[in-house]
Design goal:
This protein is of the alpha+beta class and about 300 residues long. The chain has 9 helices and 7 strands; from the N terminus they run H-H-H-H-H-H-H-E-E-H-E-E-E-E-E-H.
Length: about 300
């Protein structure tokens, strides 16, 4: 075996590049594995997080190769990781850097997609004006292109705008979302982040607790149903019979989206308490939605 220090320069460069690529691949793989374990759970605050590992991989890549499409891809993944942890301020900062990089390199469609994602992040932070400007810029770029990638991004942009128009629930400031809820009761409504719906730009959103109170007190996970400010007309939308706290008139429960989440994902103060018969109806509609007969002919 040839010693690396005595090998010819071209060979040393190739071996160094190969070793660096392997190290970067290992770091990004580790970051992905950590993220799957940590997102949606109460990960230890003082432990190594997926964002830390991926940020180190990005730093090494940037110092070695400079600003490249691959570096922008790593930054994009890092932005997604921060979004999954609810760190939307950091998410938007990273996306703004991606927007600038895509603009400087002439990647119009990439710039438009980053603008679209930034708009969703701004919306979650309550930065409505910034979100509108970003969407307008993205739309202006996309209408000048007729290729398949542009149409795909344009479709995602339209879907984002439809969700925004049909859902105006606004979460309180982050400072009001610190306290954890240790013993939520059946029928209570809180703010929560739902990892099952990562493309929902309005997170955290109100949810109603549908699992039994006794279960909630002794388990780390609970079952909730998401609440939207407007109905989509779907038969599984159950109107809430009154306006209370952070719920707007016309709010509905999406009964077919009952899901399990970690109790630690509930945040803020109690928004409202729904009657037991309303929760019973949520579960009845949700179970009925799973009946095979409802899919006949679809």
């Amino acid at each position: 075996m040839t010693d690396l220090n005595t090998a010819p320069a071209p060979r040393r460069r190739r071996q160094y590049a190969k070793g660096l690529t392997t190290a970067l691949d290992t770091l990004t793989t580790l970051a992905g594995q950590l993220h799957q374990q940590q997102v949606g759970t109460a990960a230890e605050a003082n432990g190594t997080r997926s964002t830390d590992v991926l940020a180190k991989a990005f730093e090494i890549y940037l110092q070695t190769y400079g600003e490249t499409p691959e570096a922008a891809g790593l930054m994009s993944t890092l932005a997604d990781y921060h979004a999954d942890f609810g760190e939307h301020g950091r998410t938007s900062e990273l996306l703004e850097s991606i927007i600038e990089y895509r603009r400087l390199t002439g990647d119009d469609v990439g710039e438009a997609d980053a603008l679209r994602r930034a708009a969703s992040s701004y919306s979650i932070q309550g930065r409505a004006d910034d979100a509108q400007i970003a969407r307008q810029k993205a739309r202006g770029i996309l209408v000048a292109h007729l290729n398949s990638p542009a149409l795909t991004v344009f479709e995602s942009l339209v879907n984002d705008e439809a969700v925004l128009a049909g859902d105006c629930q606004k979460a309180p400031d982050d400072s009001a979302l610190v306290a954890e809820i240790s013993e939520p009761k059946r029928g209570e409504v809180y703010w929560a982040k739902l990892p099952q719906f990562p493309n929902d730009p309005h997170q955290p959103r109100p949810v109603v607790v549908v699992s039994p109170t006794r279960h909630n007190a002794r388990s780390s996970s609970i079952h909730v149903a998401p609440i939207y400010s407007r109905t989509s007309g779907h038969r599984c939308n159950l109107p809430i019979p009154f306006k209370s706290g952070g719920l707007s008139d016309g709010s509905v429960i999406q009964c077919n989206r009952v899901c399990a989440i970690e109790k630690s994902l509930l945040r803020g103060t109690l928004i409202a308490t729904l009657q037991s018969d309303v929760v019973d109806e949520v579960l009845r509609i949700g179970v009925d939605a799973l009946n095979p007969r409802n899919y006949e002919g679809s």
